[in-house]
Amino acid sequence: EAQVTQNPRYLITVTGKKLTVTCSQNMNHEYMSWYRQDPGLGLRQIYYSMNVEVTDKGDVPEGYKVSRKEKRNFPLILESPSPNQTSLYFCASSVGFRQPQHFGDGTRLSIL
Amino acid sequence: AQKVTQAQTEISVVEKEDVTLDCVYETRDTTYYLFWYKQPPSGELVFLIRRNSFDEQNEISGRYSWNFQKSTSSFNFTITASQVVDSAVYFCALTPMSGNTPLVFGKGTRLSVIA
């Protein structure tokens, strides 16, 4: 089954404790991206990747890091999480940059 | 800069009513793509449609239809004979056909269909 898998689905953690949200897709897609969804703000892009070893900032990259060492994986790293990063996060992938995106089920992060 | 405005934050309708979700966009690019995505209460995001700026023909898919009007920079979405399963948050999004500008989403419209 074609899918984008994110882990964990839920996480409560404390300020400053490094965390990684994993994202994996099994569709051999070149394009992957991360979004955060906040009430009243819709979806905003954090980082995206056109292909392996190619990543770029989206609209709200501050406080986040990503890497794309393999085509299927695109982890989101919060080196020193802060409460304003409490949000619902989505990973997505697509065949190309402007193609319809397949989204993961989301990861709800709470940073205390 | 790209901008997508979904002025309707929340809409409530009774089952079987028709409902239109508005989407107005701003872009300096002459060629671009427009999208609609659905987010049901379960939380996942589901792709509904992609249109390119060359094609202003309306599109119909079952009870769903989309009206793209370049003259008014709008890409409205109509659900005919709404059903409870249509209850969701709907997002409109835009990306230019050239360059590396990320997909820009509107803030979404929450549709509640009441039985």
Question: In a few lines, what is going on in this structure?
Answer:
Chain A is mainly beta and 112 residues long.
Detail the topology: elements first, then pairings.
The complex is a heterodimer of chains A (112) and B (115).
Chain A: E1 4-7, E2 10-13, E3 19-25, E4 31-38, E5 42-51, E6 54-57, E7 65-66, E8 76-78, E9 87-94, E10 102-103, E11 107-111
Parallel strand pairs in A: 2-11
Antiparallel strand pairs in A: 1-3, 3-8, 4-5, 4-9, 5-6, 7-8, 9-10, 9-11
Chain B: E1 3-5, E2 10-14, E3 19-21, E4 24-26, E5 32-39, E6 46-52, E7 59-61, E8 64-69, E9 74-79, E10 88-96, E11 104-105, E12 109-114
Parallel strand pairs in B: 2-12
Antiparallel strand pairs in B: 1-4, 3-9, 5-6, 5-10, 7-8, 8-9, 10-11, 10-12
Span between termini of chain A = 36 Å
Global Rg of chain B: 14 Å
Order of helices and strands of chain A: EEEEEEEEEEE
Please give the most extensive interface between any two protein chains, plus how many residues each contributes.
Answer: A-B, 26 and 20 residues
The tally of beta strands of chain B, per DSSP, is 12
The number of helices of chain B is 0
Round the mean pLDDT of chain B to the nearest integer and report it: 94
Strand tally of chain A: 11
Helical percentage of chain B: under 10%
Query: How large is the count of helical segments of chain A?
Result: 0
- Main β-sheet description of chain B: 6 strands, mixed
Strand content of chain A: over 45%
Q: Give the N-terminus to C-terminus distance of chain B in angstroms.
A: 41 Å
Low-confidence stretches of chain A: none
